[in-house]
Amino acid sequence: MGKNRGDSAILILCENLKVEFVKYILVFSFFYVPFDASSQTIPVSNQLMQDYFRIKQLQGEIDSSISLNVRPVSIVFLEKQFDSSEISNSSRDIFNGSDIFILKILPITIDQQFNSSHSYGWNDGLMIPSKGYQQYVSAGFFFRAGPLSIQAQPEFIYASNPEYLSDNDKVASDRYSSYISLNFYGADLPAFYETRDFTKVSLGQSSVRINVGPASIGLSNENLWWGPGRRTSLLMSNNARGFKHVTLNTTRPITTSIGAVEGQIIGGRLENSSSAFNLNKKQDWRYLSGMVFNYQPKWIPGLSLGLTRVFQIYNTDIDGFNDYVPLFQPFEKKRTEEDSKLRDQLTSIFAKLIFKEANAEIYAEFARNDHSFNLRDFIQEPQHSRAYLFGFQKLIAAFENDEHFLISAEISQLSQPLNRSIRSAGTWYVHNINQGYTNAGEVLGAGIGPGGNLQNFEFSWLKGIRKIGIQFERYQHNRDYYQEILDSGDVYNQPWVDLSAGVIANWNFKKLVARSRVSGVQSFNYLWQTGINDLPQKNQFNFHANLGLSYYFK
Hints:
The protein is mainly beta. The chain has 2 domains: 32 residues; 519 residues, Porin. The protein is built from 7 helices and 28 strands. The relative contact order is 0.13.
């Protein structure tokens, strides 16, 4: 009996010790573990703020050790770099308890977009490719308690999405959809997206995280942007809606003896569209694993070097831990079982160099849609399955000290190189997975899509967040399709090309920030209707307009 009493006493003592241990851990986590107030992020969808901070870096007001190549980034960490009073901060404190407990109202954002003739535009997140009017609304709150942070920023869109394809357009569109969707190598890219009067509520730019020092781990639905591109990004952008993912990432650069590093590793779920063409494919969600790593050498200020890599696989084809985290396997096919798996992978390397004294930057990204068999294969044909982009920005002093002119240009090339006739690599974003590299019917990477090419030029006047400028673009739709299916001696050099010219303007009115872009877009050989493919040649004009308003409470 005494033995039982002794055992009971021991058990009671152990339970008390457990309770005290848990209390200690909680107190230690909240008050002694170093955490940053930097878990609130600038949504990738807020292109105005992304560009604003990038310009501030060219002006030398943000340290070049912050690469801005791994986004979203912490707004608090950026704003510590300079006086950001002109943008009235990003949110309003409802409660601020000694930097431990914080509750903020996030900005209210309304974006409106209109296309007069047919779908045009990309990098618009939850918005869909459509004709007519559509509206996007976002709002929410940010809460932090010690290392725990919750960013609730849901999104809503309405799109009138009227039918806009004529009878001939439907014939041309169905031919392309058959090519891009029904081949063994396919992609889920419907020409007419979902239904009329389309509405959607999404988790948007929401996340739940644990933040300790410069590291953060959690669940997120935020859009991601990897790499230095401004108008396009080859592997990860906000062209498609955000997707649910687990994330382990840095919230600020980690300084080491050899330089600064940033990075992110994710595992997420990609969804399919309800397109009729997609219903003939495997109906299963896809698991996406991805990583980005950015390094800035200590010895070369302003230089950042990076690597991105993503894999996707059908949920029902996952077989073991290696399929969940395949990111660190060899790059050479001969050293892996990649060809035997129904799995896709894409990889890119990128670089950006900031010239502080010249207020300028140059950047580039080079990617592969299919890995080389071995090192010899890569050396002989490095251009096989490649895509690339490069660009620059330059600030020139204007009339007053705080005014500048901005000159920027960017070129993106996703079509196959000249050796396609000898060794075809297939079309970018289109490989073993029948839905391609997409989420809900839109490409996760460059919005110009498979086989697309883009040249962009901008000239603007800047004063703080205010901007007035002009922008010109030449967008060539899927040249791989044109060259493989339509090109002949009679129709050479008649691809589908859009030429656009537009005016862009940003302006702030105290707590209200407005941004706009109005463009005229002339499409030549619209939907590859050239006049000799049994369809009459069709050139079509489109009026494209975008107006956004954000209200900052503080």
